[in-house]
Amino acid sequence: MNTKQNFIIQTAVIILILNGILLGVMYALTGATIQANGQMLIFWGVGVVLTLLLGGAVAFVGGRAIDAAAADAQQTALPPTPVTPPVEPARPAAKVEPAPKKPTPPPTPQPAPTASALQMLSILQREGRLIDFLQEDLSLYEDDQIGAAVRSIHAGCKDALEAHVTLEPVVSDDEGSTITVPAGFDAHAIRLTGNVSGEPPFTGVVRHRGWRAVKVDLPQLMDNQTAQAVVAAAEVEVER
Question: Nearest-5° angle of CA 34, CA 12, CA 7?
C-alpha cells in the first residue's frame, strides 16, 4: 500500500470520526426540535452527505499534493544530465616551413703537394739564378770564371732562403767533435755511416751537423698558380 492510499484511508477515518462527533453534538443540542418537527431522516442524511463531500474533497486535494511531492522527489533524485560542450572543428595542422639551408662556402683550394717545393725553387731562381747555374755546362768555363759567378748566385740564394725558411742544425756540436747517439734516436734526423753494428748507443764523429727547418714562410699561392709547374717564366724582350 503506497503513501497516497494510506493518506485517503486515514483522512476518511478522521473525517468520519470528527463529523460523527460534530453530528452527535448537534443532535444533543437540537435533537428534541428535530424529533418534534419530524426531520430526523433529513438531519442524518445531510450529515452523511456532508461527511462524504468533505472526505472526497480532502482526499482529492491531498492526493494531488502527494503526487506533486513524489514527482519533485523523483526529479531531485535523478542525476543531472551532463552538458556536452560543443565540439570545435579540428583545425588544420600548421604547415612547418623547413629552415632555409645555409649556403655552404666553397672549399678552400689546397695547393698541390709539389706546389710548395716548386714555389721555393722559383724563389731561388728569381733571387739567385740557381736553376740557370745548375743547368749550365761548367766545363766550358775556367775555374776563375765559375768562382766569380758563384759569389752572386750564393748571395742571392742565401738571401732568399733566409727570407722564407728558418733553419737550425740538427746536432748542436761542431763538425769533427765526438758525440754519443743514444738508443731510440730519430733515424730521419741522424744518418749513421761507417762501421755500424750492434745496438745503440753509438759513439761517432760529427761529419755534418744537418739542418732542420724551424719555420717556413712562403707567399700565398693564387688559385691559378697551384695547377702550374712553371718555376721561372720565360723572358721575351720585344723589339720595335
Answer: 160
Q: Is 214 helix (H, G, I), strand (E, B) or coil?
A: strand
- Which cell numbers in the block locate residue 125? 731562381
Query: Is residue 1 over pLDDT 60?
Result: no
Q: Residue 117: its pLDDT value, please?
A: 85
pLDDT tens digits, residue range 210-231?
Answer: 999 999 998 887 666 655 678 8
Triad 200, 201, 204: Cα angle to 5°: 110
Cα dihedral sign, 115-121-127-129: negative
C-beta of residue 128 within 8 angstroms of C-beta of residue 157: yes
Question: What is d(CA 224, CA 152) in angstroms, rounded to the nearest whole number?
Answer: 32
CB atoms within 10 A of CB 19: 17
Q: Are the C-beta atoms of 68 and 77 separated by less than 8 Å?
A: no
Q: How many helices (H) and strands (E) does the chain have?
A: 6, 4
